[in-house]
Amino acid sequence: xxxxxxxxxxxxxxxxxxxxxxxxxxxxxxxxxxxxxxxxxxxxxxxxxxxxxxxxxxxxxxxxxxxxxxxxxxxxxxxxxxxxxxxxxxxxxxxxxxxxxxxxxxxxxxxxxxxxxxxxxxxxxxxxxxxxxxxxxxxxxxxxxxxxxxxxxxxxxxxxxxxxxxxxxxxxxxxxxxxxxxxxxxxxxxxxxxxxxxxxxxxxxxxxxxxxxxxxxxxxxxxxxxxxxxxxxxxxxxxxxxxxxxxxxxxxxxxxxxxxxxxxxxxxxxxxxxxxxxxxxxxxxxxxxxxxxxxxxxxxxxxxxxxxxxxxxxxxxxxxxxxxxxxxxxxxxxxxxxxxxxxxxxxxxxxxxxxxxxxxxxxxxxxxxxxxxxxxxxxxxxxxxxxxxxxxxxxxxxxxxxxxxxxxxxxxxxxxxx
Length: 418
Ligand code: RNT
Ligand code: ZN
Fold this sequence. Notes:
Blueprint lengths: L1 H18 L4 H10 L2 E4 L33 H12 L7 E5 L21 H10 L2 E5 L18 H25 L3 E5 L4 E2 L6 H15 L7 E6 L10 E2 L3 H11 L2 E5 L10 H10 L3 E5 L1 E3 L1 E5 L5 H12 L6 E5 L8 H20 L3 H9 L3 H12 L3 H11 L8 H11 L6
Parallel strand pairs: 1-2, 1-12, 2-3, 3-4, 4-6, 6-8, 8-9, 9-12
Antiparallel strand pairs: 5-7, 10-11
Helix pairs in contact: 1-13, 2-10, 3-10, 5-6, 8-9, 9-10, 11-12
Zinc ion binds next to loops.
């Protein structure tokens, strides 16, 4: 019965969308191909497996102590496998360097190797996931306030070595999965208060990056992530947006746009069409900043909708990589994953269903009332019927049905973790 209703609503939606010149079949086909890079660190509050405990720092902070966080690789994998049963499509898993399979040993960051990630690669292959990767500069005794931008040579070299190794690991991942592994480089370097030698640290960072990127690889792609500020590092961020945008354009590296890393009233969506002209590709960290870069769970809000629309309008789905980045430890962590992934998919579905031909015609004719009116009406076109149908044909829970699945998993699995 329920399936029949979904089917019926879908048929009605098809006609309704046809009236505004939109093919929902094409939209569904495109949505099916969108692959989201799922961040592994929501599963365990960015702790990792270094066997030294979460040292925190680096200007980021998880808040909450909801029970049941994953304590090891097996548990993260188990949780991700569960998440995959509640979402449609083929996706990627984004690992941080601290999530290596270290076999109970303490392996320092300047000693990590592809071997520490073989078990991840094999598991990912079995599950049909592709892997992405990140160097980890935070949460380490040598992190301090400056890593790659540190004037102290021994510390700087330690982090250069770490980052080079991360690129090699990414290269091996890319080879193994026969698909480029995207490696994100984010460092927290900055300072809490007035900084009178801002140029110097940026020069050092530029030199470090040049050293790191000297080796050319063909199975991995680099992206560089800027930030506005970190906790305890409020006055100065070495790797600011201007810095990485300039570096990325000069060296043809893709920029990572984290939606929490800008002034709160700044539109990240509007950056897409400019970046596409000057950098090869774009990486996204879709997040939800509340008052600051708080990394709340991504939801379907205007910011995410605008972002998806700009990407679709620019016909750039093949040049923009969509990743998630948030860590909420105050609610069920699997639930947090599913909410965020589904929200991003919904945003893209809405974008793909936009009556863009008509809107552009209005714009070209200077018919701005008509353009605004259709944009408003498009908001309430029956996209939800298409979304339900998408879930149905992918054999995953429709609508709020997944809440019960998460609850059950909590009772049977995560709730039993001590
Ligand atoms: C921090 C950056 C960065 C991290 C992850 C864990 O503000 O957004 O991407 O969240 O690397
Ligand atoms: Zn990020």
